[in-house]
Amino acid sequence: MIFNNGRLRHKRVLPGFTISLGVSLLFVSLILLLPTTGLIMQTSSMSLSEYWGVITDPRVLASYRVTILSALAASLFNCFFGLLLAWVLVRYEFPGKRILDALVDLPFALPTAVAGITLATLYAENGQIGSVLAELGIKVAYTPLGIVVAMIFTSIPFVVRTVQPVLEELSHDEEEAGMTLGASDRAVFWRIILPSLWPALMVGTALSFTRSLGEFGAVIFIAGNMPYISEITSLMIFVRLQEFDFAGASAIASVVLMTSLLLLLLINLWQARYLRRIHGR
Amino acid sequence: MNSFKPLRVGEAPLIKWSLITLAVFLGLLLLLLPLVSIFQQAFVGGWERYIGHLTQPDSLHAIGLTLMVAALTVPINLVFGIMLAWSVTRFEYPGRKLLITLIDIPFAVSPVVAGLLYLLLYGNSGWLGEWLYEHDLQIMFAWPGILLVTIFVTCPFVARELIPLMQQQGASEEEAAVILGASWWQLFRRVTLPNIKWALIYGVILTNARAVGEFGAVAVVSGNIRGETNTLPLHVQLLYEDYQAEAAFASASLLALIALVTLMLKAVVEWRQQRSLSANDNKEQSQL
């Protein structure tokens, strides 16, 4: 008890406990939690069969499929591209390296609507990239492939920025031992380096996937938004709202919200586990 | 000589340069080309037309509204970010971890869903909206709604930058200051602020960049009233869908400019942070 008391007093040497916690709780309640009550009330006014009917409507189901498949493709691409960028930025010196490093954050800094109209223009059939691809018979803008391109752009930084610090702090001892003992580059990379990068790479890819699932601004300009083919779920919510179908919009939004919260929770748990493993060594 | 050769994977010139070439090529194609093409498209018709597009009354109003929303969002989230980071890194209490997880929600939630949450609460059919309507307070389809969703979307940035740093630094310097009789303002101004300065600046830069550019959430609550509730990103959309690509890119170039400044400030902040860290190391080493 005495020890506890002492500890408690020790913690409260610093001022501002009540006010900082009070402001934080008030803010979190008003800005983050209060708005969810509207969604809960709106969806709970629907019957279960109504709710089920809305979220399994064929057009909505098609939108889940388009969104998930595009996000998977985009995050898979960024898993490789992000690892490549992180590797090159950490391991090598070359002219323009700092500019490339700064450019990686561009998708975070550039408003999504701006990215959207720019990518749509670039990849249109008369655009700078689109015209080259059109000669090869590949159409990007206004097809599902366009959605993937937009998702790749907006989620590039995630893998790079999660893998980069881990790669920087990686100890070179094991790597050098492997090389001295005559193992090939490839063997050392697969057996020694990749296993240490794996957790960070997974977290980065998962973050990139979550971001891609929710991406709206960059996608809608390039997607063409054809029902059943290139319509993403975020847009479905928007369409329902424009039809003043608030219940429908809420039902779809509740699916999206629960999916992203679940993903966030899983990523946090996974991150906590692998952080403990690293510090526990 | 041979023993000085670094024993690292991927140091063979062929592997090294092909990886660099591939990364730079993809970087140019996927990142630099879009950035350059924004300005290219904006200046297709020359300077005069560019200025002309930007000085349209609707454009000027959109710029003003966007700046106003950002100017209100940044200080609100700055105060919240510092308060939250202070409470979760300097005190122990039940639910502390939950609070840290909760502020990540805006990162995970689709902006359209964020907008919808606010629309359902404050719109005329929401329980709070009905009461507001009776009292003649308009929040949705007006600037207060835009401000609220912008605060929602940007609230994690400052806190996210501060929490890991303040956790790592620990409270010993601050406790020493309090024991030596510092007032809370002296404590903050002289001890805490100098330690978290760069992270704080970076958090503000990120908050500002996102506040200026938010699209999905604002699109839901704005109502797109030209010259009234159109922010700059919505203005870009409106012009683009009106087949006025040149005008759309003129407005977009302003947002791209803000993004460029953000990237440059970030580089400067990182450089300063590294310098102050290595200066501290040097100081410690010379004391030893």
From TrEMBL, chain B:
GO terms for molecular function: ABC-type sulfate transporter activity. The keyword Transmembrane helix applies. Keywords: Cell inner membrane, Cell membrane, Membrane, Sulfate transport, Transmembrane, Transmembrane helix, Transport. It is found in: Cell inner membrane. SUPFAM superfamilies: MetI-like. GO terms for cellular component: plasma membrane. Residues 63-266 form the ABC transmembrane type-1 domain. It is a multi-pass membrane protein. The keyword Transmembrane helix applies. The chain crosses the membrane at residues 20-43, 63-86, 98-121, 141-159, 199-223, 243-265. Part of the ABC transporter complex CysAWTP (TC 3.A.1.6.1) involved in sulfate/thiosulfate import. Probably responsible for the translocation of the substrate across the membrane. The complex is composed of two ATP-binding proteins (CysA), two transmembrane proteins (CysT and CysW) and a solute-binding protein (CysP). This is Sulfate transport system permease protein CysW. It comes from Shewanella baltica (strain OS155 / ATCC BAA-1091).
